[in-house]
Amino acid sequence: MTTEQESLAPPSPFHGNVRPILNEVMHAIDRLLETDEPTTIDLAGLPFGPGELEHLEAALGTGELSAKLDALGTSRIRETAYPGVWWLEHRNAFDEVVGRYLEITRTPEILSSQDADIIAGRARLEDQFE
Amino acid sequence: MKRTPTVGEVLRAKGVSRRGFLKYCATTASILALPPSMIPRIAEAIENARRPSVIWLSFQECTGCTESLTRSASPTVEGLIFDTISLDYHHTLQAAAGDQAEAARHAAMVENDGGYLVLVDGSIPTGNPGFSTIAGISNVDMLKETVAGAAAVVAIGSCAAFGGIPGANPNPTGAVSVMDLVTDKPVINVPGCPPIPTVMTAVLAHFLTFGAIPDLDKHGRPMTFFGTTIHDRCYRRPFYEQGKFANTFDDEGAKAGWCLYKLGCKGPTTYNACATAKWNSGTSFPIEAGHPCLGCSEPNFWDAGGFYEPLSTGNFDSGEKLAGAAVAGVALGAVAAAAGRRRQAKFTKEG
Predict the structure, then answer these.
(1) Is residue B322 domain-shared with residue B236, that is, in the same domain?
(2) Least CB-CB distance to B19: which of A48, A93, A110?
(3) How many alpha carbons fall within 13 Å on the CB side of residue A82?
(4) B7, B18, B244, B330: best mutation site toward chain A, by most A Cβ within 10 Å?
(5) For burial by CB atoms within 10 Å, which of A33, B37, B127, B199 has the most?
(6) Contact check, Cβ <8 Å, B235/A48
(7) Mean pLDDT computed over B100-125
């Protein structure tokens, strides 16, 4: 392929927006290991060209744990192939994506049972004895 | 003023779990472009916020802004209406209700005096009052009567914010913007033709969350969404910096997805969030579809020269000069990015 042909090649998924995010993830992993500080990267505020978001998702791969949350629409919480790096995707009741995040943490907070829900659940359980 | 339930009470009554609420807060932080570290503060604020009453007035408009809002994905307009705001009057949606709609507007104004929000789409004719009336009331009179007891006014779309197409030369109706007529209340401009749905809902979410209007730029636009140009966040910007431009709509550069600057793209001078918020549930935005930005969120965009005339006409006629402009653009982008980081740091610190 000539230089001219190369310069006119169709757009590749590399507009330069994926690599900096992977670099940021790597530094976030370092922070998690060294200071136990979690990091959340909101993917909604970052520029992505056609195919780049899919490229980022493929680059991070799939790990050994995934979860589905049913609350105000479905959410998928999936550990990537890099332990400690989680891909979160929130959808609304119409199954439209309303948020995408990378969380670099041991366990995403939204997976934990929340006190308010635990208290409400205990009250429901107690009602069964009446 | 009657006691309205808090958003937390409304959500709990609907059986929404704390997990669901945290998810709602995370997406709210996202549309407000706030750092995730702000989520706990947002959760606390929303939990205790009361649904604000909203009155929506439609004047010289094409209904495009309402069409845009009703396609808002995050949060949905249904969610906004039932969970977050109390939409007490919307002329376009309630047109068939006639006198009952007008009665609802008056009731909302009395019950929420001093605390309700007025949203306006469309410009206001100042020529013959008969150019545009609702229920026999001229647009000017309805605006002045309704904003008298409002906490703030949100001008939705470029017509309400800057006069828009009705105000374009020769402006046959004497159309003016909301801020031309309302000078004693805070006016938030959310321009665009139409505005991005999530930007409209985010302004309401900000008011709900913080009980105040967001930081505004010199044109009264929320800095969160209008603080950087389309060009600053455009995925095609690397091509601009490499001097790779489409010269026609069907040349090899256009097919390769190169920068549309030479085809009249107004991205470098247009402040809006299209490049990241995108349209149609995040599918794409005009530049991604291969068309230059028209600059629809800037004042008087309709009269600001040809849509397909390069910004640089008369200034940059060669690739070398364009490359020089690109270097200057990088410097400007760096300044804008630094300003954005400072603003984010400020929010983080306050949180």
Answers:
(1) yes
(2) A110
(3) 20
(4) B18
(5) B199
(6) yes
(7) 90
